[in-house]
UniProtKB/TrEMBL annotation:
InterPro entries: Homeodomain-like_sf (IPR009057), HTH-type_TetR-like_transc_reg (IPR050109), HTH_TetR (IPR001647), MftR_C (IPR041347). It comes from the Bacteria. GO terms for molecular function: DNA-binding transcription factor activity; transcription cis-regulatory region binding. Residues 11-71 form the HTH tetR-type domain. It comes from Glutamicibacter arilaitensis. This is TetR family transcriptional regulator. PANTHER family: HTH-TYPE TRANSCRIPTIONAL REGULATOR BETI, HTH-TYPE TRANSCRIPTIONAL REGULATOR RUTR. Keywords: DNA-binding, Transcription, Transcription regulation. PROSITE patterns: HTH_TETR_2. Residues 34-53 bind DNA.
Length: 198
C-alpha cells in the first residue's frame, strides 16, 4: 500500500514538473534553455530534474502524455445531457483546454508552436494522440452502442482537435473556441451535406 501511494505521489509530481518545464521551453525556446536553466526556472536542482526526466524532450513528452488522463478523465466524469449528440459530448471534453487557452492564449500558442516546430516532439504528440484514442474510447463506451463506435468516435474527436490546433496557429485573430466549435460543427454537417454521385 505504501509503495502504491508513493508511486502515485511521484507520478503526480512528475506530471506537474513536466508541465512547468514545458511552459519554460515554450516561452524561451527549446534550443535556448539548458536542462539546468529549466530546473532553476521551476525551482528544482539539475539532479532532481534528471531524476524525473532523461532529457528536455522527455519532460515535454511527459507533459503531452499527461493530457491522455485529462481528456479521458473528463469524459468518464460526464453525465449525458438529454438531447445531446455524441459529438456534442465529445466537444465538451475539450472545454477545459479551451478555457485555458482563453485565460492565457499566448502561452498556449507557444506550447503548441514548440511541438509543431520540433520534429521529435511532433512525432511524440502523434503517438500521444494514438494512446489517447484508446483511453478515450474506453471512457466513451458507456455512451456508445458498441466499442467500435466508441473507437471511431474517439478517433474523430481527436482528429478534429488536432486539426483545430493547427488552424488556430494559422489564424491568430481567432480564438481556439471558435476554431474548435467550427471543426465540430462541420463534422456534424457531414451527414446532411455528403452526397454520393450516381
Amino acid at each position: 500500500m505504501g509503495n502504491v501511494v508513493r508511486d502515485r505521489v511521484r507520478e503526480k509530481m512528475k506530471a506537474e514538473l513536466a508541465q512547468q518545464a514545458y511552459a519554460v521551453f515554450a516561452e524561451r525556446g527549446m534550443e535556448n534553455v539548458t536542462a539546468q536553466q529549466a530546473a532553476q526556472a521551476i525551482g528544482i536542482s539539475r539532479a532532481t530534474f534528471f531524476r524525473y526526466f532523461s532529457s528536455k524532450e522527455d519532460a515535454v513528452v511527459t507533459a503531452l502524455r499527461s493530457m491522455n488522463v485529462h481528456f479521458s478523465g473528463m469524459v468518464a466524469s460526464m453525465s449525458s445531457v438529454s438531447g445531446e449528440s455524441l459529438l456534442e459530448l465529445l466537444r465538451r471534453s475539450f472545454e477545459a483546454t479551451v478555457v485555458a487557452a482563453e485565460q492565457d492564449p499566448q502561452s498556449m500558442r507557444d506550447r503548441i508552436e514548440l511541438v509543431w516546430s520540433t520534429p521529435a516532439l511532433r512525432s511524440s504528440w502523434q503517438e500521444s494522440l494514438r494512446e489517447q484514442q484508446m483511453s478515450l474510447a474506453q471512457a466513451l463506451s458507456p455512451f456508445c452502442a458498441n466499442h467500435r463506435l466508441a473507437e471511431t468516435s474517439a478517433l474523430l474527436a481527436l482528429t478534429l482537435f488536432d486539426h483545430a490546433l493547427v488552424r488556430w496557429l494559422d489564424s491568430p485573430q481567432r480564438t481556439l473556441r471558435e476554431v474548435l466549435d467550427e471543426a465540430f460543427d462541420f463534422a456534424a454537417m457531414i451527414d446532411d451535406k455528403w452526397a454520393v454521385k450516381s
